[in-house]
Known about the structure:
By secondary structure, this protein is of the alpha+beta class. 37% of the residues lie in helices and 24% in strands.
Amino acid sequence: MPNRSTDALFQLIKSLEKSEKRNFKLFVRRNSSSDDLKIIHYPDPRLKKPSAPVKEVTPALRELAAKMLLLMREARGVGLAAPQVGHNVRLFVMNHTGDVKEDRVYVNPELSEAEGSEEGEEGCLSLPGINANVVRDKTIRIRATDLEGKPVDETSSGYLARVWQHEFDHLNGTLITDRMGAVAKMAAKKTLRELEEKYKNERK
Ligand code: NI
């Protein structure tokens, strides 16, 4: 059940491809580096900041979503939320199958009608080297809009529902480190310290 933003996004990427005769990836990279779009890591404070609702789907927002999908793919991720690229707006992208046609974009998502709970392993592109079991609602409904401003209304269970909840958490400044148990936290301690050191050193 691909959402409707898939087509819009595909069209956008196609039009960008046409507008640039050179390699599309280079085009995106050049643009990405010019506005410094990259995946940020813990403990960057932007990851802890609650994001603001999107007021209007603009061409700039569509471009942001397209770039996020490319970054996500390059990093072999399943989902990526806007705060993870330093934009504190309520938008996330995901692809849980790897098929480009399954690219999904959710603007101003809301979760409701949670049922059951399930533990499963999660990682996060902003927490490299950390994997932890996280308890999530098993079934959940998501309502959002797509990149054309059209409503999206889906209900799912299991893995897809888990990705929605993980990405939705990012929009509220919540990371898997806030949700994992005491044992997992202990196990992650060293990696978190290393990430904190790295962050500090990059700012010296
Ligand atoms: Ni994440």
